[in-house]
Amino acid sequence: MNASKERVLEILAGYGNDGANLIAILQDVQAEYNYLSEENLTLIADTLGLSVSKVYSVATFYENFSLEAKGKHIIKVCAGTACHVRKSGPIYDAIYEYLGLHGKKKTSDDGMFTLETVACLGACGLAPVMTVDGEVHAKMDPETALALLEDIRKKEAQE
Predict the structure, then answer these.
(1) What is the layout of strands, in order, in the sheet containing 130-132?
(2) What pLDDT tens digit does each residue of the chain (159 aa) get?
(3) Looking at the 3D structure of the chain, how many domains does it have?
(4) Structure pTM?
(5) Is residue 68 part of a domain?
């Protein structure tokens, strides 16, 4: 049995393999892997005695669940009113270009970063705001945002 499958089974066991805990299980599995793979959704369904379609319906109903693989670092750029007015759009555009994204693609080819927008990060007084792995970065501009990503790349290269 591979390590990924073992870890998902551990998460399931932590909830007593009880289907009533499906949302919490999906949250924990996503926290572990940054997304919900088809393999893991099927394993969850089989272990809980639920249909795969039931598990998929829950995973696709809630916006916070992702069925697409995400990068190691998740970047969220606020698109709320305060951030938009203070020019969060050019920040998003600069990061999008820097990561070499195109179309609806959200994750860089190297799997390092995933770029998303969010409706509000709740830090309007610090606008424009973005987060990287949940850490808030305030009063951003395109240059500062790209410098932050460069720092992350350098740290990754040293590890």
Answers:
(1) 113-118, 73-78, 130-132, 135-137
(2) 687 899 999 999 999 999 999 999 999 999 998 899 999 999 999 999 999 999 999 999 987 898 988 899 999 999 999 999 999 999 999 999 999 999 988 999 999 999 999 999 999 999 999 999 999 999 999 999 999 999 999 998 887
(3) 2
(4) 0.75
(5) no
